[in-house]
Amino acid sequence: MSMFLDTAKIKVKAGNGGDGMVAFRREKYVPNGGPWGGDGGRGGNVIFVVDEGLRTLMDFRYNRHFKAQSGEKGMTKGMHGRGAEDLIVHVPQGTTVRDAETGKILTDLIENGQKFIVAHGGRGGRGNIRFATPKNPAPEISENGEPGQERELQLELKILADVGLVGFPSVGKSTLLSVITSAKPKIGAYHFTTIVPNLGMVRTQSGESFAVADLPGLIEGASQGVGLGTQFLRHIERTRVILHVIDMSASEGRNPYEDYLAINKELESYNLRLMERPQIIVANKMDMPDSAENLKTFKKKLAENYDEFDELPQIFPISSLTKQGLSILLDATAELLDKTPEFLLYDESEMEEEAYYGFDEDAPAFDISRDDDAAWVLSGDKLEKLFVMTNFDREEAVMKFARQLRGMGVDEALRARGAKDGDLVRIGNFEFEFVD
To answer: How far is CA 87 from CA 15, 83, 191, in A?
Structure first.
């Protein structure tokens, strides 16, 4: 059974900030000691780092939850809590990271050592030393730490290769890869011998080198998930040149030209942009009896059905078994790669905008709804974060939170919605009575 895994869904949770502390100076010979509580430490980030030694997402098959440490609480004598270390998660090259909820792409990790923060740790809460004012020189107020970011991610591995071998099963893609590279793919005379992508490096006689991927064979309907379906198709998206391998001997009883049209149809159905990649047609198994005659027929049909303004793709007759025509094919592939630019894998509509981890000034500060039990429910990112960071063990902090709600216009909005004295108001699991 193959242990290749190219998709995974995981959950990440950055560390919470440490709580600030309420403390006072109580030193001998120091009258009227003031506040002395320090700030909490920063929570750890969750960071993805590309590791070229990894080839699959197998590490995420059983370990799907990643949680960074929280920051330490603030201490007396004005000392800050220690910030937590970041959680480093290693991923293979070619990993695309999406937000599972929105479907937006957060990052595309393709370079060894590349880093990306997928979840930001919360800042530490302020200690009471931060709240001292001339009017209130000894405040009993501190903040709880800010919650760390939590999100569900969809990981998708798309292998890094310059050239992709495509074609129906049993046309000789694995055999071709085995003779032009040091790769050792599994080869057999039956369909779907290749069930995972195989990667190898090619070096031409002129010294050029490039990476080639032998990808699982396509069948009709693959773009809709038939057979290996999109398990194959996603891996061709990073390639710049496609080698379209065709069994010119028709040993499987299929028509080579119809095979060519069927594979291109699947590529186009999966992603129109795949057809932008230049193709070289590899007429394989030319050592077989009927191959030469089939190649003539193939070239004739190709010319008849191509638009006169379109450039016909190059056709190279080869035999992977006898190694006939391989050097010419590889030199032509290297030459085509030199003049083929990188293709943009994602457009701007698929990418998540640069994240902002403060409050959005344009977003409403709060929202009011009604629960089934007639309680008023307050929600909203700004209000909920303010609530979580309030230390309700301290009366002064509770009064400060009440003033902040009033300043945000919550009281007026509740009155406008018909709230009366004694009505129940709920924020998360916290309930209190509305006082008019």
So the answer is: 9, 12, 43
CA distance 310 to 278: 12
- Compute the Cα dihedral for 168, 170, 172, 178 and give only its sign: positive
Q: Are 66 and 13 in contact, with CB atoms under 8 Å apart?
A: yes
Q: Where are the beta strands (DSSP E) in 20-113?
A: 46-50, 65-67, 87-91, 95-99, 105-109
* 0.85 exceeded by pTM: no
Break the chain down into helix, strand, coil percent, rounded to 5.
25, 25, 55
Cα separation, 73 vs 83, whole angstroms: 9
Provide the pLDDT confidence category of residue 231 given band limits of 50, 70 and 90. low
CA distance 141 to 37: 10
Q: What would the two tokens of residue 326 be?
A: 């391989």
Helix (H, G, I), strand (E, B), or coil: what is residue 216?
A: coil
C-alpha angle with apex 206: 201 to 208, nearest 5 degrees? 35
The confidence band for 360, taking pLDDT boundaries of 50, 70 and 90, is low
**Residue range 286-307, pLDDT digits in tens:** 999 999 999 999 999 998 887 7
